[in-house]
Design brief:
Pfam families: Hydant_A_C, Hydant_A_N, Hydantoinase_A. This is Hydantoinase/oxoprolinase family protein. By secondary structure, this protein is an alpha+beta fold. It is built from 16 helices and 37 strands. α2 packs across α7 and α10 (about 360-365) packs across α12. β17 (about 300-305) and β18 (about 305) form a beta hairpin. Strands 13, 14, 15, 20, 25, 26, 33, 36 and 37 form a 9-stranded mixed beta sheet that branches.
Length: about 675
C-alpha cells in the first residue's frame, strides 16, 4: 500500500485535498463541498475520496478561528487587566478608517469585551519588570469568583508591562485555576510578549475567544481520524494539533498562508522568484506578495475588525469570490460583494435554494465555465443563473449579457484594489510582478486583471483549486518568540541573554515536535529615536558582538531607505533605538518535488457558445490534453477538474515545462 502525506484545506465553499506519495513523489488531488455546520465532515469526506491509503501524516489548513472572528461570534468572554486601566479597550487607538475625513461619521465598533465584563486587579510593574506595587491576591480571588458566578468561561489576562515580567499574570492564572477551574485562560505574556498594551490586550482576548471552538474542533477531528495531525499557522509554519490548541490565535490565517507558500514554491520552480499570489475562493480572495521566493511577513495584521499582532504572512483579503452576491444599491448602482452565498445555499446555479445572483452565476450565464463543477460531480443549473441575471438586468435597464459582464468587471476591480494595497501603496510597481492565480475562481478573471493592472503575465499552476492544500505539504514546523527590549544603548550581554532564552523556548517546543536539530532565525525591530513604529530586519546568527550589532544597524538603515526613501546613517542627531528581539525556531521537513510535465494526456476539444465581446462558438480545451509548449489563442476556454481559465480575445496562453499555463496579452 502506498504511504502518503496528505494536506487538507477547508475553504468556505470547497474542502481541497492533496496527497503526495512518499516513494514516487506522485501527487493526487481531489475536492469535496465544505460543510460549514461541522467542517470536520468535509475534512473526513475529502480524505475518504482518495481511497485506501497508508497515511503517514496529515496537515490541515482550517478556517474555524478565522470564521468565528469574521462573523463576530465573540461571546462569554471576560478581560482582567491592571487596576486603573479598565478602559484600555474603549480608548483603543486614534486611527479612523479611511482617514480623518471620515471622523465625523465613523462610529467606533463595539469592543471585543464590553466594559461590564472588564475587571481589574491591584498590583503594578514598571517597564523594566520591577514590582512597584505587590499583586493583590485578595482582589484576584474576588474577580475569579465574580466571573465564575457570571458564567464567563473564556478569560484574557493582560497586566501592564507583563512583557517584561510575567509573574503577576501567572499568579492570576493560578487563582483562576483554583477559584474557576472551568475557565479557559489566555495570558498576554504567553500569547504576545511585546509592548503596546492595546494590541497586546486584543490579541490575547482573540486567543481566548477562539480557544473553546478550536479545542472542540481539534478534539472531534482527532477522535474521527484516530491519528495525530498538524495545523497550518499564519506565520508560514505548521504545528501539531496537540500544541496548537494552546495558541489557537496562530491559526487565524491558516489556509491563505498555505496558498501563498505553495504558489511561491510553484512560481520559483518555474523561474518566477518574485510574484503576486491571488487565491480566489468561493467566499473571498486572498492576495500576497512574494519577493525572492519568500512571502512578506507582518505583525500589523488584523482579522475582521480585530488587530492581531502576531507574525503572519502579509495577506489582504477582499469579499470577491465566486459566491459574492451582486446587488443594487439604494442609489441604483450595481455592487458585488462582500456578502457571499457561500457553500450553502450557494449560487443560483447550484440549485440548493440560493435566491441571489452571484459571480459564479454570471460566469455560467456567459458560458465561461462549464455547466458542471468537479468534472461533472456537481451539475449546474444554467437556466436558473440566466433567469436570475435577467431579473437583475431588468431592474438596471441593461441586457443580461451586459449585466453579467458588469458583475465580473466589478469583481475584477475589487481584486485589483486588493493587489494595489500590497504593491502600489507600499512602493512596489505592480507591473514588475507576474500574478500567480489559483483557487477555484482565481483564474477566471486573469485576462481582465492583466489589462487593469498592466501585469506582464498571469501564471495558473496545475490543479489550481488545490494549491493551498499542496502548500500545506511544503512548510516547516515553525514557532515565533519575541521579547521587547527598548534601548538606544544596546547591552550585548543583555541581547545575548534574551536571544539565548528565546532560542531555548523554541528548542523545547521543537523537541516536543520530534526535531533534534532545529534551525534558529533571529530578527530585530529597530527605529530612529522619536519614531512611533519600527522596521524589522533579519539578524545574523553567531556571536553577538560589536560586528554583529553594526551589521544589524546597517541592515536597518538599508531597509528604512528602501521603505521610505531616506536613512540617517551619518546623522548623529538621529540615534537608532532597539525595540524587539525575535527568534523563529524551525523544524525542517522534506518538501515534495514539482516535476516537469512529460507529455500531454488525452481529451477532445469541443465547442460551446461563450460571450466575451460577443457571443460566439468558442473552442473548449481540456487542460489535461495540453502538453509543454502548447499554445492557445483567445477566444478560448481551458477547463480542468477544479477550475477554468477563460482566454479573452487578444490574449494567448502557453503551457510551460511544469504544466503551468502562462497567459499574456498578444
Amino acid at each position: 500500500m502506498r504511504s502518503v502525506r496528505i494536506g487538507v484545506d477547508t475553504g468556505g465553499t470547497f474542502t481541497d485535498v492533496v496527497a503526495v506519495d512518499e516513494q514516487s513523489g506522485e501527487i493526487h488531488t481531489t475536492k469535496t463541498p465544505s460543510t460549514p455546520a461541522n467542517p470536520a465532515d468535509g475534512f473526513v469526506a475529502g480524505i475518504e475520496k482518495l481511497g485506501d491509503l497508508d497515511v503517514s501524516s496529515i496537515v490541515h489548513g482550517t478556517t474555524v478561528a478565522t470564521n468565528q472572528l469574521l462573523e463576530d461570534r465573540i461571546e462569554n468572554l471576560g478581560f482582567i487587566t491592571t487596576e486603573g486601566f479598565e478602559f484600555v479597550l474603549e480608548i483603543a487607538r486614534q486611527s479612523v478608517p479611511d482617514g480623518y475625513g471620515n471622523s465625523y461619521f465613523w462610529v467606533k465598533p463595539p469592543r471585543i469585551v464590553p466594559v461590564h465584563l472588564v475587571k481589574t486587579v491591584g498590583g503594578r510593574l514598571d517597564h523594566t519588570g520591577a514590582e512597584v506595587r505587590p499583586f493583590s491576591e485578595e482582589q484576584a480571588t474576588e474577580v475569579a469568583r465574580w466571573f465564575r458566578a457570571k458564567g464567563v468561561t473564556a478569560i484574557g489576562v493582560c497586566f501592564l508591562h507583563s512583557y517584561a515580567n510575567p509573574e503577576h499574570e501567572r499568579r492570576m492564572r493560578e487563582v483562576l485555576w483554583r477559584e474557576h477551574p472551568e475557565a479557559v485562560i489566555s495570558l498576554s505574556s504567553d500569547v504576545l510578549r511585546e509592548y503596546r498594551e492595546y494590541e497586546r490586550s486584543v490579541t490575547t482576548l482573540v486567543d481566548a475567544a477562539v480557544k473553546p471552538a478550536m479545542r472542540g474542533y481539534i478534539a472531534s477531528l482527532s477522535n474521527r481520524l484516530g491519528m495525530p495531525f498538524s495545523v497550518m499557522k499564519s506565520n508560514g509554519g505548521v504545528l501539531s494539533a496537540r500544541e496548537v490548541v494552546n495558541q489557537p490565535i496562530s491559526t487565524v490565517l491558516s489556509g491563505p498562508a498555505a496558498g501563498a507558500l505553495g504558489a511561491a514554491l510553484i512560481a520559483a520552480t518555474a523561474g518566477h522568484p518574485s510574484v503576486i499570489t491571488l487565491d480566489g475562493g468561493g467566499t473571498s480572495t486572498d492576495v500576497a506578495v512574494v519577493v525572492d521566493g519568500e512571502p512578506s511577513i507582518t505583525t500589523e495584521g488584523s482579522v475582521g475588525r480585530y488587530p492581531c499582532k502576531i507574525p503572519m504572512i502579509d495577506i489582504v483579503t477582499v469579499g470577491a469570490g465566486g459566491g459574492s452576491i451582486a446587488w443594487i444599491s439604494p442609489e441604483g448602482t450595481l455592487k458585488v460583494g462582500p456578502k457571499s452565498a457561500g457553500a450553502d445555499p450557494g449560487p443560483l446555479c447550484y440549485g440548493k435554494g440560493g435566491t441571489e445572483v452571484t459571480v459564479t452565476d454570471a460566469h455560467v450565464m456567459l458560458g465561461r465555465i462549464p455547466p458542471h463543477l468537479l468534472g461533472g460531480e456537481i451539475p449546474l443549473d444554467v437556466d436558473a443563473a440566466r433567469t436570475g441575471v435577467q431579473a437583475l438586468a431588468d431592474k438596471l435597464g441593461l441586457t443580461p449579457e451586459r449585466t453579467a459582464t458588469g458583475i465580473l468587471e466589478i469583481s475584477a476591480f475589487n481584486q485589483s484594489n486588493a493587489i494595489r494595497q500590497l504593491t502600489v501603496k507600499r512602493g512596489l510597481d505592480v507591473r514588475d510582478f507576474p500574478l500567480v492565480t489559483f483557487g477555484g475562481s482565481g483564474p477566471l478573471l486573469a485576462c481582465r486583471l492583466i489589462d487593469i493592472l498592466g501585469l506582464p503575465a498571469v501564471v495558473v499552476p496545475r490543479d489550481p483549486g488545490n494549491v493551498s492544500a499542496f502548500g500545506l505539504l511544503t512548510v516547516d514546523v515553525k514557532n515565533d518568540y519575541v521579547r521587547t527590549y527598548v534601548t538606544r544603548d544596546l547591552s550585548l550581554g543583555k541581547a545575548a541573554e534574551i536571544f539565548h532564552d528565546l532560542e531555548h523556548q523554541a528548542g523545547e517546543a521543537l523537541d516536543r515536535e520530534g526535531f533534534d536539530d532545529p534551525v534558529y532565525l533571529r530578527s530585530a525591530d529597530l527605529r530612529y529615536y522619536g519614531q512611533a513604529y519600527e522596521v524589522r530586519v533579519n539578524a545574523p546568527a553567531g556571536e553577538i558582538d560589536g560586528d554583529w550589532q553594526a551589521e544589524v544597524i546597517e541592515r536597518f538603515h538599508e531597509a528604512h531607505e528602501k521603505l521610505y526613501g531616506y536613512a540617517y546613517r551619518d546623522d548623529p542627531r538621529h540615534g537608532v533605538e532597539w525595540v524587539n528581539l525575535r527568534v523563529s525556531g524551525i523544524g525542517p521537513i522534506n518538501r515534495p518535488a514539482i516535476r516537469p510535465l512529460e507529455k500531454a494526456g488525452t481529451g477532445a476539444t469541443s465547442v460551446r457558445a461563450v460571450h466575451f465581446d460577443e457571443t460566439r462558438d468558442t473552442p473548449i480545451h481540456q487542460r489535461t490534453a495540453l502538453g509543454p509548449g502548447a499554445k492557445i489563442v483567445g477566444p478560448a476556454v481551458i477547463e480542468e477538474y477544479g477550475s477554468t481559465i477563460p482566454i479573452h480575445p487578444g490574449f494567448t496562453a502557453t503551457v510551460d515545462v511544469y504544466g503551468n499555463v502562462e497567459v499574456r496579452r498578444d
